[in-house]
Amino acid sequence: MWTARPVWAILLTVVATLVAAYSSAVALVVPTSLPLWQRAVAGCVTSLVAVGLVVLWRRRLVHRPWSGVALSWSWRALGHGLLGLGIAAAAILTAQATCVAADACEWVPLSGVGIPLGEVVVSTFISAVLVQGFPEELLWRGNLTDLLGRRWGPGVVLLITSVAFGMLHLVSSGPQDGVGEHVLYVVMATALGFACGAARLRTGSTWAAVGVHGGFHLAKGLVPAQPEELAALLAAWTVALTVAGLALLLRRPARLRSHAAAERP
């Protein structure tokens, strides 16, 4: 089927990512502008749209089982998700602490944002996991990785999905300004894709990739650091995520699983 061919699969994944994101664009609004329950609903819509698109793609177009996306429900899956979250959070907090120590950033207390701490935590989780981590990893490290894995080896798939994921962020809105910061932002997103892909490859579970992606956003959202220059913080995140990805790949390489193999409950 043509939708399983590499170029078309990547392009359709980009389209599906944008459709899922914009299907509940209200979930991306500044936290104070919407009631918490509405943001939770919007986040769930984003995830459900991504699930629906993948189900339709796999059942109607490529005729491949859901197991290929490696998102089974099990205690092992929970462990993989927490592992990814912990690795990403440790990497990002280390990067930010390094920036603070080098006087390139300063910590921003959550108490200073004028929102109850509980609401900040829940809102950040909605954005980190429901809006970004789960739907994007389902599409990129779940479905797309499985489709490309039918044609290429794990290393090639990891490289291609990481670069394509990074390039998608050329259209991302954010605080980056100027050509240099936009380029660094794409490089950082590529490093995030690499770390997520490495977690998927290392564990055989897309939940580990969801954990890495969610952990990245949770760490920088709940323990924020304000940089003097955004480029310094982007560079620190890039290095930290790359090191985390390499650590996942290099640790006990004999136990690495093929990304095309589905996780068993």
UniProtKB/TrEMBL annotation:
Q: Cite the EC number.
A: 3.4.-.-
The molecular function GO annotations come to:
hydrolase activity
* Domain of life of the source: Bacteria
Would the keyword Amino-acid biosynthesis be found if you checked this record's keyword annotation?
no
Question: Any idea which UniProt keywords this protein has?
Answer: Hydrolase, Membrane, Transmembrane, Transmembrane helix
What residues does the CAAX prenyl protease 2/Lysostaphin resistance protein A-like domain cover?
122-217
What stretches pass through the bilayer?
7-30, 36-57, 77-95, 107-131, 152-171, 230-250
Pfam families referenced in this protein's UniProt entry, alphabetically? Rce1-like
Keyword Transcription listed? The answer is no
Please give the name of this protein.
Answer: CPBP family intramembrane glutamic endopeptidase
Gene source species: Promicromonospora aerolata
